[in-house]
Design goal:
Blueprint (H helix, E strand, L loop, with lengths): L2 H18 L11 E3 L2 E4 L2 E5 L12 H14 L7 H5 L2 H14 L3 E5 L2 H12 L5 E5 L4 H9 L3 E5 L4 H11 L6 E6 L11 H11 L2 E5 L14 H4 L9 E5 L9 E5 L1 H10 L1 H4 L6 H16 L2 H20 L10 E7 L1 H13 L2 E2 L1 E3 L9 E6 L6 H17 L5
Parallel strand pairs: 3-12, 5-6, 5-7, 7-8, 8-9
Antiparallel strand pairs: 1-2, 2-3, 4-10, 9-10, 11-14, 13-14
The chain binds 4'-deoxy-4'-aminopyridoxal-5'-phosphate.
Length: 398
């Protein structure tokens, strides 16, 4: 067997093993979506794995604006943005992202992954250093690896560790960039933004914050991490994010100063050499940002639902770490009970994702449940009841 065949075979052995035991929960075919419910294999399930945090997927105003753009511009564009693919819908969307976040400008990429990958690798050169949190998203890590800069990581949310690295980097590198997630995608906790800003100022570093899981969720009116801490958008050099979570489309963005964004529009390879987003997708984003600002009841609903779900879990004795967001880790520990509990919940109609090592540290295997504004009290109580019954039966809780 050749080296590639061996690699593929090792993976497939593990994959088939999970399938045989009925413990494979990935790539499930969803036949229908309806608010917080999905139809899988002919069964209606309550969805706790959706990133549509404000329940905007299929919102009538979003659907209408997407349809208008589809009729006006068609399903795609003429190609890459820089040559012939920039439509009025793209320009409007970028301006709306910037106005929503309070920055001078914004650039839309084909995904949140590409936004991070391309921006980080474009900005950094070989005499620079990039320092990121150990739990930063894969797209940030990959951007750092792709860049020619020195790549360093600090312990999760540990300001002393970051200070140590910044101090050591002080005279050694030309440019310094620190990158964090606003909300961490496996733990749901929040970065200590005021302290990070102060540290970056002290050491002359730029700060980039990924708002993938905070936009529309954090802050009294859902404007994200800046609003959550009562800071100014100008305190951070770059905000990045996804257009496929709270904003129910596809794509990613970076927001910041106009000069920086113009630089990226002409230099970022993931933008220059990759096709434009479909006009309907960017129109859906613009409409969603309008809806978030017009309808504060959505944010109130998601807050209420987070409290109901996390409160219920903690009362039963489940550890949900330090979540402050729609990402709710339910810590189980070892992989076997995590998969067993997932299996029972799926069987009884709750769609939730198991997260195992190496995605998370050893013995912190968990279910990752996402609460959204689309859940009703009944949906949440249904899930809590299942978690109580099976958790007790499996001796995970008392
Ligand atoms: N950043 C974070 C923190 C994420 O969680 C994700 C997606 N899970 C991304 C970036 C990538 O976004 P996208 O799915 O739009 O590529």
């Amino acid at each position: 067997m050749g080296v590639f065949e061996k690699r593929i075979d090792t993976f497939l052995t593990e994959y088939n093993n999970l399938r045989e035991k009925n413990l494979y929960y990935y790539l499930q075919q969803v036949d229908q979506l309806d608010g917080a419910h999905v139809w899988i294999g002919g069964r209606r399930m309550v969805m706790f794995s959706s990133y549509s945090y404000l329940g905007l997927l299929k919102h009538p105003k979003v659907q209408e604006r997407a349809r208008e753009a589809l009729d006006r511009f068609g399903t795609g564009t003429h190609g890459v943005r820089i040559l012939a693919g920039t439509t009025a819908a793209h320009v409007e969307c970028e301006q709306r992202i910037a106005s929503f976040l309070g920055t001078e400008d914004a650039i839309a990429y084909s995904s949140g992954y590409v936004a991070n990958l391309s921006t980080i690798s474009t900005l950094l050169g070989r005499h620079d250093v990039v320092i990121t949190d150990k739990l930063s998203h894969a797209s940030i890590i990959d951007g750092c690896v792709l860049s020619s800069a020195e790549f360093q990581r600090f312990k999760h949310n540990d300001l002393d560790d970051l200070r140590r690295l910044l101090k050591a980097a002080a005279d050694k590198f030309e440019g310094k960039l620190v990158i964090v997630d606003a909300v961490y995608s496996m733990d749901g906790d929040v970065c200590p933004l005021p302290e990070l800003v102060a540290l970056c100022r002290e050491y002359g570093a730029w700060l980039m914050v990924d708002e993938a899981h905070s936009l529309g969720v954090l802050g009294t009116t859902g404007h994200g991490i800046i609003e959550y801490f009562g800071m100014s958008p100008q305190d951070v050099e770059m905000l990045s994010g996804s257009l496929s979570k709270t904003l129910p489309a596809v794509g990613g963005f970076v927001a910041g100063r106009h000069d920086l964004i113009q630089f990226l529009r002409h230099q970022a390879r993931g933008f220059v050499f990759s096709a434009a987003l479909p006009p309907a997708a960017v129109a859906a984003v613009t409409a969603s940002l309008d809806v978030i600002e017009e309808d504060p009841s959505l944010i109130a609903a998601v807050r209420r639902n987070i409290q109901r779900f996390v409160g219920g879990l903690n009362e039963m004795g489940y550890d949900t770490l330090n979540t402050k967001s729609c990402v709710i880790p339910i810590i189980i520990g070892k992989p076997e009970p995590t998969l067993e509990l997932t299996s029972r919940l799926h069987r009884d109609g709750m769609f939730v994702s198991p997260i195992l090592h190496p995605a998370v540290p050893m013995n912190t295997c968990r279910l990752r449940a996402n609460v959204t504004a689309g859940h009703t009290d009944e949906d949440i109580d249904f899930a809590l009841d299942l978690l109580r019954r099976h958790g007790k039966d499996m001796a995970i809780i008392k």
